[in-house]
UniProtKB/TrEMBL annotation:
Cofactor section: Mg(2+)
Molecular function terms from GO: ent-kaurene synthase activity; magnesium ion binding
Alphabetical list of InterPro entries matching this protein: Isoprenoid_synthase_dom_sf (IPR008949), Terpene_cyclase_plant_C1 (IPR044814), Terpene_synth_N (IPR001906), Terpene_synth_N_sf (IPR036965), Terpene_synthase-like (IPR050148), Terpene_synthase_metal-bd (IPR005630), Terpenoid_cyclase/PrenylTrfase (IPR008930)
Reaction catalyzed: ent-copalyl diphosphate = ent-kaur-16-ene + diphosphate
Name by which UniProt lists this protein: ent-kaurene synthase
PANTHER family found in the cross-reference section: ENT-COPALYL DIPHOSPHATE SYNTHASE, CHLOROPLASTIC, ENT-KAUR-16-ENE SYNTHASE, CHLOROPLASTIC
Lyase in keyword set: yes
Domain annotation Terpene synthase metal-binding: ranges: 487-721
Domain Terpene synthase N-terminal: 215-404
């Protein structure tokens, strides 16, 4: 029979982790923490105002719009004035401090501004300086190492044609001009293959580069309720120039009323920008500092979702991001509403045509949250995964250097699925890879205040290190406790305190959750000791003696113990449960000791049953085995007492409610099946039975090993999705969300641990434990 081995048993870790930098880091805390409050306040203000960078490219196209009343004068002279006043020192118009790989972007923006000034016969000095910039950087036009903005091969040659019409002498080689015009002609006449709808959307999006050749009836099918085409000022301005659509003009005027005399390259972006901010704060581990602000954004987004807001549903990335964040936070978002996830929608969209890895990544992350009955999402999941893997394998050197942050995120998403991504390890990775200059590129480059923000990174580093300093002290306490309780004297027991504490710190990292971490870690150590005692260290007499002692609870003399080992184990369990009972008064206003005693007795009795099966060579049915084995997996004493220390008050009725018991059973069942699948080969070689071998035995030879494993992999997936639904759905639920989150955190821990065949190796686990508990992050080294 399989041992009752808890989930954290296979690897061996040294109990002592050195911390040579602790004194230095403590000193750093005293300095950096002085700015902690100020950083938080600056971030809070960002929720109220989203700042977008000005686009000289789009402003130029708006400046080219003629007045409806007098076509020989500009409709928006304030834009031409802005162009005259905002030329950079090198003669270009572009984002200040631009990336050296974005010269094509600067050339495109500069040419657009030159055309706007030439169109209205003003700014000769600025035009000449701009032409000089183009001349000095003309080699970049055909440089394949330079990043191309979306539609560059259509738009830039289109602007060259317009320059020729305006008798503007461009300082470009005739051969280069002819080559670009030829490439444009080929791109305009080439078919879209299977993605015909995506190509139509793309050609409509780059309308300003097509001009008179555009099928404007087709292009206007993409007009949105706000009057824009794709929320793009340049596309919308081009549409008005050619067909004088009143709604296009209304959109442009509304932009200038909001932004003054220049426009961004995309608007509106408010919903996506705020959701990106909420997402970034959560992914960096600092969202708990902004609960009020987050709640406002989520409530507002959900209201927009229910109203079918176009800003959400017209964009794949925004829709997927909204779906994921709303579902993760307990809002009821229906798959029926999420039509963006239909089978061919993404591949036939503008983002799909452009192979937009950012939109695909958001879609992939959203698909990780499917419930058991949402098979449509599961089918799309494999296609999106394939799309992202292809994108990683086809990344150009230029794109790699420009978008290393998104490439890193794609790599992490594919290698660390949400259900196997320990929060604290994920936060550390995200901090190290967070890009504080996250320039986004559409038809031109732009920046947004809530994307790639330095204050986010600064607060995340400070918060991580502060939490870590607390955890280091807690771990020292755990080490002392092991010695004080004489657990280190038990020769049969593995010393697992480092890993047990790590499992708590990796999921319950907020400073105020110290009692929950200590309960989790101490009970984790004790379940390991008890498991070894039942598996190899104790006789049946000792096992029965231990159970009887816990049932009696208060024991007066040493005569009651049949061995020193029983005395040590009983005393450690007794003192730990008593400590939990005492601390529970502060959190719950009552003593929960009796409930924790019952949890421990359930575990011990299940372990005894398995020990008796093994000694008697019994072969239980699979149902009999799972009824016992999900309890003997030993999650009960670890997770259930910790529920009392995460914030909400739990009455006896709630603590014993079927909903909570079901959360525990599903979590434990999933964990047990994971263990039995991954340890099947090893345990078979040792002559032990587990769920997989019992399934094969009771099938009467009808099931092969491969078929049995596939069967249990399907059960694990189903149990995990069922648990996700139980945790996230709030309708008819009486268990507080912080309590339900403990079960999902445990599932993530289990999937992380069992990601490999039989758990982490000793070195791998030692490294991740050190990263969480002992290795601070230096902001200067990022």
């Amino acid at each position: 029979m399989s041992c009752s081995r808890p989930w954290f048993c296979p690897s061996s870790i040294s109990a002592t982790l050195t911390d040579p930098a602790s004194k230095l880091v403590t000193g750093e805390f005293k300095t950096t923490s002085l700015n902690f409050h100020g950083t938080k306040e600056r971030i809070k203000k960002m929720f109220d105002k989203i700042e977008l960078s000005v686009s000289s490219y789009d402003t130029a196209w708006v400046a080219m719009v003629p007045s409806p009343d007098c076509p020989e004068t500009p409709c928006f002279p304030e834009c031409t004035k802005w162009i005259l006043e905002n030329q950079l020192g090198d003669g270009s118009w572009s984002l200040p401090h631009g990336n050296p790989l974005l010269v094509k972007d600067a050339l495109s923006s500069t040419l657009a501004c030159i055309l706007a000034l030439k169109r209205w016969g003003i700014g000769e000095e600025q035009i000449n300086k701009g032409l000089r910039f183009i001349e000095l950087n003309s080699a970049s036009v055909t440089d394949n190492e330079q990043h191309k903005p979306i539609g560059f091969d259509i738009i830039f040659p289109g602007m060259i044609e317009y320059a020729i019409d305006l008798d503007l002498n461009l300082p470009l080689k005739p051969t280069d001009i002819n080559s670009m015009l030829h490439r444009r002609a080929l791109e305009l006449t080439s078919g879209g293959g299977k993605n015909l709808e995506g190509r139509r959307a793309y050609l409509a999006y780059v309308s300003e580069g097509i001009g008179k050749l555009q099928d404007w009836e087709m292009a206007m099918k993409y007009q949105r309720k706000n009057g824009s085409l794709f929320n793009s000022p340049s596309t919308t301005a081009a549409a008005f120039i050619h067909i004088q659509d009143a709604e296009c003009l209304h959109y442009i005027r509304s932009l200038l009323q909001k932004f003054g005399n220049a426009v961004p390259t995309i608007y509106p972006l408010d919903i996506y920008a705020r959701l990106s901010m909420v997402d970034a704060l959560e992914r960096l581990g600092i969202d708990r500092h902004f609960r009020k602000e987050r709640k406002f954004v989520l409530d507002e987004t959900y209201r927009f979702w229910l109203q079918g807001e176009e800003e959400i549903f017209s964009d794949n990335a925004t829709c997927a991001l909204a779906f994921r964040i709303l579902r993760l936070n307990g809002y009821d978002v229906s798959l029926d509403t999420l039509n963006q996830f239909s089978e061919d929608h993404f591949s036939n969209s503008l983002g799909g045509y452009l192979k937009d890895s950012g939109a695909a990544l958001e879609l992939y992350r959203a698909l990780q949250l499917s419930y058991p009955d949402e098979s449509l999402l599961e089918k799309q999941n494999s296609r999106t995964s394939y799309f992202l893997k292809q994108g990683l394998s086809n990344v150009s050197l230029c794109g790699d250097r420009l978008r290393k942050n998104i490439i890193g995120e794609v790599h992490d998403a594919l290698n660390f699925p949400d259900h196997a991504n320990l929060q604290r390890l994920a936060i550390r990775r995200r901090i190290k890879h967070y890009a504080t200059d996250d320039t986004r590129i559409l038809k031109t480059s732009y920046r947004c205040s809530t994307i790639g923000n330095q204050d986010f990174l600064k607060l995340a580093v400070e918060d991580f290190n502060i939490c870590q300093s607390i955890q280091r002290e807690e771990f020292k306490h755990i080490e002392r406790w092991v010695v004080e309780r004489r657990l280190d004297k038990l020769k049969f027991a593995r010393q697992k305190e480092a890993y047990c504490y790590f499992s708590a710190a990796a999921t319950l990292f907020a400073p105020e959750l110290s009692d929950a971490r200590m309960s989790w870690a101490k009970n984790g150590v004790l379940t390991t000791v008890v498991d070894d005692f039942f598996d190899v260290g104790g006789s049946e007499e000792e096992l029965v003696n231990l159970i009887e002692l816990i049932e009696r609870w208060d024991v007066n003399g040493s005569a009651d113990f049949c061995s020193e080992e029983v005395e040590i184990i009983y005393s450690a369990i007794h003192s730990t449960i008593s400590e939990i009972g005492d601390k529970s008064f502060g959190w719950q206003g009552r003593d929960v000791k009796s409930q924790v005693i019952k949890i421990w007795l359930d575990l011990l009795k299940s372990m005894l049953t398995e020990a008796q099966w093994s000694s008697n060579k019994s072969v239980p049915t699979l149902d009999e085995y799972m009824t016992t084995a999900h309890v003997s997996f030993a999650l009960g004493p670890i997770v259930l007492p910790a529920l009392y220390f995460v914030g909400p008050k739990l009455s006896e009725e709630v603590a014993g409610h079927p909903e909570l018991l079901n959360l525990y059973k599903v979590t434990s069942t999933c964990g047990r099946l994971l263990n039995d699948w991954r340890s099947f080969k090893r345990e078979s070689e040792e002559g032990k039975l587990n769920a997989v071998s019992l399934y094969m035995i009771h099938s009467g030879g009808a099931s092969t090993e491969e078929e049995a494993i596939e069967h249990f992999k399907g059960l694990i997936d189903s149990q995990r999705r069922q648990l996700l639904q139980l945790v996230l759905q709030e309708k008819d639920s009486i268990i507080p969300r912080p309590c339900k989150d403990l079960f999902w955190n445990m599932i993530k821990l289990l999937h992380t641990f069992y990601m490999k065949d039989d758990g982490f190796t000793s070195n791998e686990m030692r490294n991740v434990v050190k990263a969480i508990i002992n290795e601070p992050i230096s902001l200067d080294e990022l």
